[in-house]
Amino acid sequence: MPVASFSTATIAFDSADTSPVVREMESLVGRGDGLGWINIGPGLRDDQIDRLPTPSPLGRWFSGRGPAVPMATWTPPRAVRGDSLPTVGVEHGAGPKALDRLRDAGAPLPPGWRKVQDHAKNGIVVQPVAGASHGDVLRWLLSACWSLCPIDIEDHWLAEVHCPA
């Protein structure tokens, strides 16, 4: 089976205008093949990066937590398998029961969304309710990253779009 090659593009944006990322989500869904994904994370300045906790190499190996800076991932529906819903996830270092932490922080899982996983090291994986707009999904991912980040961050985000070539 041939291996697909992917092109990558980075989009800088803020929560006031998510339209460039939403357009990319629509484009990946429009392909109809379920291929591609978008990674989203905060755009950090050097001084913010310097404030992040730095585990030892041994600590990283044995840690039961994910990365200190949360990273969200959105994937389009996998139409070839019959799925009609995208899958979204957030890798984070906040520890176990992150969905409870998000609820307590005012960023609960929206009604009808299905939890697939809430794991300390592997992160959160959920499926939005059918009919959820790309904008709503993206806003929830941003609020989840914001709430799970161990340092103060600004409303500056980077989306890395991986599209089959």
What can you see in these coordinates?
The chain has 165 residues and is α+β, with helices and mostly antiparallel strands. The protein has one domain. Helices cover 28% and strands 26% of the residues. It is built from 5 helices and 7 strands, in the order βαβααββαββαβ. The protein has helices at 19-31, 46-50, 57-62, 98-104, 134-148, and strands spanning 6-13, 37-42, 71-75, 87-91, 114-119, 123-127, 157-164. It has a 7-stranded antiparallel sheet with strand order 1-7-2-3-4-6-5, with helices on one face. Strand 5 (114-119) and strand 6 (123-127) form a beta hairpin. The protein starts with 5 loop residues before the first strand and ends with a strand. The relative contact order is 0.29. The mean pLDDT is 86.
Question: Which labels suit this protein?
Answer:
28% helix; 165 residues; globular; alpha+beta
Topology overview:
Blueprint: E1 6-13, H1 19-31, E2 37-42, H2 46-50, H3 57-62, E3 71-75, E4 87-91, H4 98-104, E5 114-119, E6 123-127, H5 134-148, E7 157-164
Antiparallel strand pairs: 1-7, 2-3, 2-7, 3-4, 4-6, 5-6
Uncertain residue ranges: none
- Largest sheet composition: 7 strands, antiparallel
Number of domains: 1
Please list the strands of the largest sheet in the order they lie side by side: 1-7-2-3-4-6-5
Number of strands: 7
Element order: H for helix, E for strand: EHEHHEEHEEHE
Helix content: 25-40%
Derived from helix and strand composition plus strand pairing, the structural class reads alpha+beta
Terminal CA distance: 16 Å
Mean pLDDT over all positions: 86
| Number of helices in the DSSP assignment | 5
Strand content: 25-35%
What gross morphology would you assign?
globular
- Estimated radius of gyration: 16 Å
